[in-house]
Design goal:
By secondary structure, the chain is α+β, with helices and mostly antiparallel strands. It has six helices and nine strands; from the N terminus they run E-E-H-E-H-E-E-E-H-H-E-E-E-H-H.
Amino acid sequence: MSQEVEIEFKNLLTNQEYNQLSEELFSQAETIEQTNYYFETASFDLKANRSALRIRKKNGTYTLTLKEPHPDGLLETHDLLTEAEFLSWTSGKPTEVPNVTRQLKQMSIDVSTLNYLGNMTTFRKEMPYQDTLIVLDKSIYLNTEDAELELEAPSRKYGEKVFKNLLANYQITVREAPAKIARFFNQKQKTSL
């Protein structure tokens, strides 16, 4: 599917909370390594459109994903890339692809103006939970590390209820969890000062 609406809830975790969830809830889940490669224009046109663009390398595949605001969550538009296309994108020569390029043109963003800014590697555990998917992530980027819990749900109302109960059950403090790309950019800004 080249487009989907993602309804998710996130909470940043302390190391202690991460370890507790890893041992008690995700003990049977396998760890999957994935790396996100982030892109933006010099004038931050994606950010101005409240959007984000990344390539995710996972299990030997490369998926280019554009995330845009949507009334129910985020609209994600995907294109699969070959390794050669991935290498072109990360070496400063992004190539046009059908789905993402179409969406970028609607924002008046030319693919050739995109710059590769860096990457984040995430060690992810996933499992089904009360008709949702819960995800435990530990991410490493720009000499920092953080952890978060995510829940993907079929509807906003149901997902919010399950997520609040999950946090309460494990006595996890509610914390804002900006998107991974936002955390990456915040850290990049700090390190370039």
